[in-house]
């Protein structure tokens, strides 16, 4: 069984009888690739200038097409097939060789006319659910699919996707005005969307839905480093002084002295805390997925950890437990005792977002530098490192999988530590 490769133009100029024509690839009303043509140019330079106006580039681009034949299994009818869009002749020849081998074995099947919408909604997303991924992770994927990928690319055939389509999507996401009135979405949102699309096309190829992965060389957009916002020790102390005696004093103390994640604090139960041994076993989280609160588990094995508690935190927890016991007695039968530490006067666990809202209101009222609740985690880690706590200890406290992650996040603290360590050794020896 033989096949062939043919060079085809994606953006080029032709000449006939002294008249030049510009040709370039576009998408038709159904999102399928088509060629546009404009003629009547007196010179090649004029035609190239028009190409640049229409495509952004005056350079000519050619792609390669692989062609081969197969016999229908029932009728024996000979049919021609083709696959275009290869950037190099070698890539087209490699694809042709792979197809011809499958044709000879009788295992080759024509590629399905699969749209991006069909791939994402009917195949890839259901497959992710069956993998047992965390619901919060699936929620991220569903948001990317429903809000960005399907609206922008849903009508396109998966096989016709090209790196330029992803570049255009990223540009649109980063610059278009959002429904909330913001100028562009965050780079992280674009990164999640591109990552989901790449994962879906790779999955489609592995499972035989497409012959090749059209996005194999596409990179996820880079996220520029944003300076970390943290409080100084004095600012953290000012906040903790201001909440003394409040119902949730122990909550704010935990955030700023141990650096847990919000979901870990929201999901704390009394059975996780041993006040005599002064430890907190982090084994559950309470997170928001699709607007609903669910109880989950830490993302990694390192997230399941034991956090030591000092005498001050133990005293705050004992006081909080006594307050809850009094509230339970006062509420009577309406009290719902599910063992949550971070709960209201009737025992109902707080909505996790409420903790962020309250923290924002409290520290802004004090005139402190504005930070997110999650930045209390960075504050605690930075203050521990600055105080000379070993990186490995801080890493275990935060639930990082390795100290390398801790070092990469909090490298800004280390230069000052090195300077202080050197000065201390000089004071001893010189």
Key features of this structure:
single chain, 430 residues, alpha+beta, five-stranded antiparallel sheet, 15 helices, 46% helix, 17% strand
Structure description:
The chain has about 425 residues and is of the alpha+beta class. Helices cover about 45% and strands about 15% of the residues. It is built from 15 helices and ten strands. The protein has helices spanning about 45-55, 90-105, 115-130, 135-155, 165-175, 185-205, 235-240, 250-260, 260-265, 310-330, 350-365, 375-385, 390-400, 405-410, 415-430, and strands at about 5-15, 20-25, 35-40, 60-70, 80-85, 275, 280, 285-290, 290-295, 305-310.
Ordered list of secondary-structure elements with their pairings:
Blueprint lengths: L2 E14 L2 E9 L5 E9 L2 H12 L5 E11 L6 E9 L2 H17 L10 H15 L4 H19 L9 H13 L11 H20 L26 H10 L6 H10 L3 H5 L6 E2 L4 E4 L2 E5 L2 E5 L8 E4 L2 H21 L20 H14 L9 H12 L4 H8 L4 H7 L4 H16 L1
Antiparallel strand pairs: 1-2, 1-4, 2-3, 4-5, 6-7, 7-10, 8-9
Helix pairs in contact: 3-4, 3-6, 4-6, 5-6, 8-10, 8-12, 13-14
Summarize the structure.
The chain has 430 residues and is of the alpha+beta class. The protein has helices at 44-55, 89-105, 116-130, 135-153, 163-175, 187-206, 233-242, 249-258, 262-266, 311-331, 352-365, 375-386, 391-398, 403-409, 414-429, and strands at residues 3-16, 19-27, 33-41, 61-71, 78-86, 273-274, 279-282, 285-289, 292-296, 305-308.
Give the H and E element order: EEEHEEHHHHHHHHEEEEEHHHHHH
Q: Based on Cα principal axes, name the global outline.
A: elongated
Low-confidence stretches: none
Taking the sheet with the most strands, its summary is: 5 strands, antiparallel
Residue-averaged pLDDT, rounded?
Answer: 86
- Give the structural class: alpha+beta
Distance between the termini: 84 Å
Strand order of the largest sheet: 3-2-1-4-5
């Amino acid at each position: 069984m033989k096949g062939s490769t043919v060079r085809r133009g994606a953006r080029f100029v032709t000449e006939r009888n002294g008249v030049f024509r510009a040709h370039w690839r576009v998408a038709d009303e159904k999102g399928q690739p088509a060629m546009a043509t404009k003629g009547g140019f007196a010179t090649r330079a004029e035609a190239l200038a028009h190409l640049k106006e229409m495509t952004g580039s005056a350079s000519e681009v050619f792609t390669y097409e692989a062609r081969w034949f197969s016999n229908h299994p029932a009728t024996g009818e000979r049919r021609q097939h083709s696959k275009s869009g290869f950037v190099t002749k070698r890539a087209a020849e490699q694809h042709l060789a792979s197809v011809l081998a499958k044709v000879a074995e009788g295992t080759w099947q024509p590629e399905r006319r699969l749209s991006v919408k069909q791939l994402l909604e009917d195949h890839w997303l259901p497959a992710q659910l069956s993998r047992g991924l965390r619901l919060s992770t699936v929620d991220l994927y569903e948001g990317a699919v429903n809000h960005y990928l399907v609206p922008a690319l849903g009508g396109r055939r998966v096989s016709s996707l090209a790196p330029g389509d992803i570049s255009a999507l990223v540009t649109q996401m980063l610059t278009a005005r959002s429904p909330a009135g913001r100028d562009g979405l965050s780079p992280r949102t674009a990164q999640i969307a591109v990552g989901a699309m790449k994962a879906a096309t790779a999955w489609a190829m592995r499972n035989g839905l497409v012959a090749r992965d059209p996005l194999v060389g596409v990179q996820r957009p880079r996220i520029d480093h944003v300076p970390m916002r943290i409080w100084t020790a004095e600012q953290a102390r000012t906040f903790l002084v201001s909440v003394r005696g409040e119902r949730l004093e122990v909550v704010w103390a935990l955030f700023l002295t141990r650096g847990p994640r919000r979901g870990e604090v929201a999901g704390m139960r009394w059975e996780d805390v041993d006040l005599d041994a002064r430890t907190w076993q982090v084994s559950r989280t309470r997170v928001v997925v699709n607007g609903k609160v669910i109880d989950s588990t830490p993302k990694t094995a390192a997230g399941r950890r034991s956090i030591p508690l000092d005498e001050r935190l133990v005293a705050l927890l004992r006081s909080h437990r006594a307050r809850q016991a009094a509230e339970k007695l006062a509420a009577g039968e309406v009290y719902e005792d599910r063992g949550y530490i971070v709960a209201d006067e009737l025992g109902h666990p707080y909505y996790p977002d409420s903790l962020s809202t309250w923290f924002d209101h409290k520290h802004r009222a004090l005139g402190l530098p504005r930070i997110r609740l999650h930045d209390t985690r960075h504050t605690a880690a930075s203050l521990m490192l600055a105080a000379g706590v070993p990186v490995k200890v801080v890493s275990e406290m935060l639930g990082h999988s390795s100290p390398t992650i801790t070092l990469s996040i909090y490298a800004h603290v280390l230069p000052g530590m090195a300077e202080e360590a050197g000065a201390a050794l000089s004071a001893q020896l010189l």
